């Protein structure tokens, strides 16, 4: 039998394996087995490791794909007319600068889909690539990168989140992998100034260390050590010039105006300052996208903030020679319904929505996948959030097939076994 099996061609061997699996293991295991064989060496796929850093722009509330990245005509058209771009596709009418100056830099995925239509769960899924569970917390991509690649800077944190709390972004990894939270980019790093002379601070720390020494000797816990290391790293940051990365006041006021004098625009500028100095992963969150009412007014406000901030970020990164090695990600937890409701708004719609990649290995001027004519469902090349995470992780140089065991001895991978979308990478 072995000789006859070896004589089969590759397709026949696959058919044989499928029949065996159906008879013995059930059909759910096999696709992952075959997929793992097909992508045994992700480093050979396009774009691997070409992004040395990622700026992750998460629009909280459910950004309308029809009014931004996947405009439609007819009954589902938004309140603004689509804009033609040099790259040959259209963008929503609220993104004029992005359409005019940056369309050839963008890789847009118009066939994203999810089963999660609740804000908190959807945001968790988009941030981590995993469905929310009560028994475990999953890491964000920045924490994954620190686990697989090590720290990105001697003094700066490897991951920073701007405009939101860290929300256990380290997941099941060490507390030392937690994102550093910056609530207000203009305020910078909270408590960054010493309230006492360094000599006094050092004496207090020595006393604290003496008090804690007995406890640490008795309880050899990795999380306890992680918190100790976190404090040490924080003090190291406070005593270096890298602390200036968090100070937007060092920027020219005219340059700040280009980004927009609001939390999102200034958050994008802060992200540029941070990745320029060695932070690997920066998340910038912007709320206000839950437009159940008066979507015209909501898009006028938020669309303008997005267009100005993202456009300035792409121009700034390019002028500084950083865009080729920095991937910019634009995403949201889901889209919004094609049909305008009775309150002139759009409701939650996870069935299809859009995301955007730019910089790094992102293949500019690319549209991947499509929604149907109404923007109601994927019509071609359906993409899951797991696929999206695997693609960004791959670009960042993470082996998405590498299994990492959690403290509870459960196996996990970047993107939860998603498929790398090779067509959007170069």
UniProtKB/TrEMBL annotation:
InterPro entries: Alkaline_phosphatase_core_sf, DUF1501. Pfam families: DUF1501. SUPFAM superfamilies: Alkaline phosphatase-like. It comes from the Bacteria. PANTHER family: BLL7424 PROTEIN (PTHR43737), DUF1501 DOMAIN-CONTAINING PROTEIN (PTHR43737:SF1). This is DUF1501 domain-containing protein. It comes from Prosthecobacter dejongeii.
